[in-house]
């Protein structure tokens, strides 16, 4: 029965890390997978997380199952993190329900299954390019996947005109996926005016907007990074937000995220929750507790929260510092090209729009690992490798 099974291709991101680990060269540099790397070249456990874990170790009294939708205090804290400071009816009119999910990926998968099973939406539009796993997740849930243009490789900027004209043809009930902030892989987000135009089109065309929020806090700040979502909520009463705590809490291997469905009213929200529960029960029954307990403790405790917010700010500032240094170093070493676009990008990544040969050359000849068409994890750069990386990129660009 298993004889005819073919070998699947390696995952372009997680598979790349495996190739990197097996690479024996001493000077290899991993700028691939999107995890924060500190000055000591570690992906550290945040102090706020360690403190929450110490508290849990002392006070946790049971390993009993969580409910199907997860830890109640975590789900509520997520809702307040998303909408607690925005002045709208989502909280006051009880128009949303949140379920805990195994990471941002798990949240997207729950959302996609929820859409397929409970709505007339059968098609989803994702940006080109986008995070490589989006297509897998939506196809696996049974959605048909289409793309809209996003990146202009000549100007290294958002291709807003093409994006807008392409989305003008999207049918009512179709799902349109947006990266709430820190677009992965390009690091380019729409500005407020562009979000406003898109939200208007969405309301007029009656799409279902789905927001992937994997990097909250990595662009401008926890609230600032929700700008696009808030603009959409003003004109669109039904939408879905899938957020991840992998990056902003450094809880990568705890697989913790959430799926929040926003509806027109409390009754619709309650019905939606009941269907989300059916999907979860038939998949993994109920979620693991540890990541949710940690996030909930931190978000609900003043001292821990303030420690976490400072740690998040430090990660953001350190990446921004590296972004500037990277752009300056490239510019100093190659005056004939304009690298200023790097400073206009945001989040963990810089995106160079390289071709496949250039990415492979960087890996084979220089030991520098990038994802896809030249996505660079800026936190993997350091004072001691930035010159080497910049010069290698310049040499590669010239061929
Ligand atoms: C990434 O984009 O590198 C991360 O989100 C890791 C992943 O799961 O792909």
Describe this structure in words.
This protein has 399 residues and is of the alpha/beta class. It has two domains: 113 residues, Aspartate Aminotransferase, domain 1; 236 residues, Aspartate Aminotransferase, domain 2. It has 15 helices and 13 strands. The strands form four sheets. It has a seven-stranded mixed β-sheet with strand order 2-10-9-8-7-3-4, sandwiched between helices. It has a two-stranded parallel sheet with strand order 1-12. Strands 5-6 form a two-stranded antiparallel ribbon. The longest helix is centred in the last third of the chain and has 32 residues. The chain is globular, with a radius of gyration of 21 Å. The mean pLDDT is 96. It comes from Blochmanniella pennsylvanica (strain BPEN). This is Aminotransferase. One of its GO terms (molecular function) is L-aspartate:2-oxoglutarate aminotransferase activity. One of its GO terms (cellular component) is cytosol.
CATH architecture of the largest domain: 3-Layer(aba) Sandwich
Strands of the largest sheet, in order across it? 2-10-9-8-7-3-4
CATH class of the largest domain reads Alpha Beta
Provide the CATH topology of the largest domain.
Answer: Aspartate Aminotransferase, domain 2
Outline: globular
List low-pLDDT spans: none
What number is the mean pLDDT?
Answer: 96
How would you describe the oligomerization state of the chains in this entry? single chain
Terminal Cα separation, in Å? 48 Å
Quick one: how many beta strands?
13
The proportion of strand residues reads 5-15%
Hetero groups in this structure are: (2S)-2-hydroxybutanedioic acid
CATH superfamily heading of the largest domain: Type I PLP-dependent aspartate aminotransferase-like (Major domain)
Order of helices and strands: HEHHHEHEHEEEHEHEHEEHHHHEHEEH
Spatial extent as radius of gyration: 21 Å
Number of helices: 15
Domains counted in the coordinates: how many?
2
By helix and strand content, what is the structural category?
alpha/beta
Amount of helix: 40-55%
Largest sheet: 7 strands, mixed
């Amino acid at each position: 029965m298993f004889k005819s099974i073919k070998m699947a291709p390696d995952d372009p991101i997680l598979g790349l890390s495996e190739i990197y680990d097996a690479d024996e060269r001493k000077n290899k540099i991993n700028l691939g997978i999107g995890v924060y790397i500190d000055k000591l070249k570690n992906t550290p456990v945040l102090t706020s997380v360690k403190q929450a874990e110490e508290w849990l170790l002392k006070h946790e009294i049971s390993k009993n199952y969580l409910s199907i939708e997860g830890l109640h205090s975590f789900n509520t804290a997520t809702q307040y993190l998303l909408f607690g400071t925005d002045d709208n009816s989502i909280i006051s009119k009880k128009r949303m329900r949140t379920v805990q999910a195994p990471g941002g990926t798990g949240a997207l998968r729950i959302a996609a299954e929820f859409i397929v099973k409970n709505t007339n939406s059968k098609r989803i539009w994702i940006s080109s390019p986008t995070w490589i796993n989006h297509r897998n997740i939506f196809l696996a849930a049974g959605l048909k996947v289409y793309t809209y243009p996003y990146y202009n490789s000549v100007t290294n900027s958002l291709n807003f005109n093409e994006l807008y004209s392409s989305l003008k043809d999207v049918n009512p009930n179709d799902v349109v996926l947006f990266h709430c902030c820190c677009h992965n892989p390009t690091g380019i987000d729409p500005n407020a005016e562009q979000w406003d135009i898109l939200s208007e089109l969405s309301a007029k065309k009656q799409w279902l907007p789905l927001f992937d929020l994997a990097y909250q806090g990595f662009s401008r700040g926890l609230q600032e990074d929700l700008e696009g979502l808030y603009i959409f909520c003003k004109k669109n009463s039904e939408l879905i937000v899938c957020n991840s705590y992998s990056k902003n809490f450094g809880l990568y291997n705890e697989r913790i995220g959430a799926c929040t469905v926003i509806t027109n009213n409390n009754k619709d929200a309650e019905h939606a929750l009941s269907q989300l529960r059916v999907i979860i029960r038939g998949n993994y029954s109920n979620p693991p507790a540890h990541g949710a307990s940690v996030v909930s403790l931190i978000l609900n405790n003043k001292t821990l929260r303030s420690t976490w917010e400072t740690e998040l700010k430090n990660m953001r500032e350190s990446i921004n510092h590296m972004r500037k240094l990277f752009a300056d170093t490239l510019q100093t070493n190659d005056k004939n090209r304009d690298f200023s676009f790097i400073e206009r990008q945001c989040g963990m990544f810089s995106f160079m729009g390289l071709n496949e040969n250039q990415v492979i050359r960087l890996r084979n000849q220089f030991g520098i690992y990038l994802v896809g068409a030249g996505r660079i994890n800026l936190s993997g750069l350091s004072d001691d490798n930035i010159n080497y990386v910049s010069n290698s990129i310049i040499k590669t660009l010239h061929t």
